[in-house]
Fold this protein.
Amino acid sequence: MINKELLYNEAAAIGVSLDGTALDNFDLYAELLVETNRVMNLTGITEPEEIVIKHFIDSLELLKYAEIIEGARIIDVGTGAGFPGVPLLIARRDLDVTLLDSLQKRLGFLESVLDSCKLEARLIHMRAEDGGQDKGLRETFDVATARAVAPLNVLSEYLLPYVKVGGAMYALKGTGEDISLAEPAIAALGGKIEDELHYELPNGDKRIIVYVKKISQTPTQYPRKSKKITAKPL
């Protein structure tokens, strides 16, 4: 379905080497995404080249900018159709990936992708704020990530509780937000903004990865319930 040569070359351009198995898995992932999207709203992006650039390469950019150690425990919060978590796993089969989402139907789709690609990941059906308070998940991950449109102060309350001290949060975002406005909220959650990583996709779309280091434990009152996070953001 997809142009494997395009994916291979664009991944190589950002320092990500994809072997034949990975390329086959990305192709299968794209097929399942488009097929399932006919009956379930997973994505507005269904053209093969756009899937490669806007979903796969955009997700893999994290491997260019983030220092993710071998065997790292990563949680993709609100994973949706699996971005960026599944592309990271396809490219780096050594990673210990958890995919968390509030909608069971999306997790069912992801289970079919993992089974078809012969990959293993933990699938968790839970709201992000509930997972952040779960003793089995809270502050147990090396990396928490999400590709989301929520303001960074809001997104940080959902993500940072999952990250262990010394770990990192990576928020994949579009441009146009003043990242510095989130600094007080991130500090209150035990984090510190280390870098804003600006890049451009091959089609010219501009993106930012915000790298936040976890420097102290998140106070137990966070994350709050979703209504409070929305009504009174930090």
Q: What stands out?
A: The longest strand covers residues 163-174. The mean pLDDT is 96. The CA atoms of residues 157 and 226 lie 10 Å apart. The chain has nine helices and seven strands.
